[in-house]
């Protein structure tokens, strides 16, 4: 770890993010393998389609639990839009689509990230509810079960598309982001560019954690 790096995420936050992300990937793969004949071979690899479905069902429960905890963690900073702070950023598309000299400063998460949070929260809840109804079809009316198949498929398409946008943004779109979810430490330059207001807030209230100094984990605002 280089001296001067800044702590951006707590271990619990990272564990929850990865539980959510990995279970989501597992569900996408097992779900697509159930849906498309050409991907049925994935079932064969793990001992048959019955195993694949079981993995999808219990993976779904794990995803649901991770989603609830993730909503609890991200809600405070990503769940609420503020027109005063977020609207100027939205008008400039955060500088992602055309050149902007001064990107309006926002809090810990920008409106794009907040939108992704809502897609994951609402889309994930719809996938969980529709999946549970599809799992126990005999407990519900035929019409409801049929509708849930449509909800589940549409929800998948939306979440799947947004995951690629998220992956693009945390790699090519905003280089230096990924370490926030791997080690938790980011550079000051990244922090200044991606979360300037959050950086200032932490500096002002003395909660900024900078790597280096006497201890390996010195709390300092310098
Ligand atoms: C290899 C895959 C992934 C990587 C490397 C990754 C990385 C990251 C990073 C670096 C952040 C923090 C961004 C920042 O502070 O500026 C983040 C936030 C987040 N990630 Fe991921 N992520 C991945 C997959 C996923 C998946 C599959 C989901 C959801 C199903 C997800 C949900 C979230 C949410 C809800 C946040 C917080 C709000 C936001 O930034 O939009 N991530 N991720």
Q: What's the CATH first level of the largest domain?
A: Mainly Alpha
Mean pLDDT over the residues: 92
Q: What compounds are bound to the protein?
A: protoporphyrin IX containing FE
Helical region count? 9
Description:
The protein is mainly α and about 220 residues long. The protein has two domains: about 10-185, Transmembrane di-heme cytochromes, Chain C (Fumarate Reductase Cytochrome B subunit, Up-down Bundle), CATH 1.20.950.20; about 190-220, no CATH class. It is about 65% helix and about 0% strand. Helix 5 runs antiparallel to helix 6 and helix 8 crosses helix 9. The radius of gyration is 20 Å and the shape is elongated. It binds protoporphyrin IX containing FE. Protoporphyrin IX containing FE (HEM) binds near residues 113, 177 and 178. Protoporphyrin IX containing FE binds near residues 24, 74, 113, 163 and 167.
């Amino acid at each position: 770890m280089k001296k001067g790096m800044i702590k951006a995420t707590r271990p619990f936050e990272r564990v929850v993010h990865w539980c959510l992300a990995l279970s989501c990937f597992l569900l996408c793969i097992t779900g697509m393998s159930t849906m498309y004949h050409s991907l049925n071979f994935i079932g064969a690899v793990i001992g048959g389609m019955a195993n694949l479905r079981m993995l999808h069902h219990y993976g779904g429960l794990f995803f649901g639990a991770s989603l609830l905890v993730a909503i609890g963690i991200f809600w405070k900073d990503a769940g609420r839009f503020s027109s005063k702070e977020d609207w100027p950023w939205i008008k400039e598309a955060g500088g992602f689509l055309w050149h902007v000299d001064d990107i309006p400063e926002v809090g810990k998460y920008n409106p794009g990230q907040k939108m992704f949070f809502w897609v994951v929260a609402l889309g994930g809840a719809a996938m969980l509810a529709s999946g549970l109804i599809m799992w126990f079809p005999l407990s519900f009316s035929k019409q409801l079960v049929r509708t849930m198949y449509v909800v589940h498929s549409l929800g998948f398409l939306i979440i799947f598309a947004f995951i690629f946008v998220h992956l693009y943004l945390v790699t090519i779109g905003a280089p230096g982001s990924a370490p926030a979810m791997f080690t938790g430490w980011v550079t000051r330059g990244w922090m200044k560019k991606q979360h300037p207001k959050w950086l200032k807030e932490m500096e002002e209230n003395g909660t900024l954690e900078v790597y280096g100094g006497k201890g390996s984990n010195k709390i300092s605002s310098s």
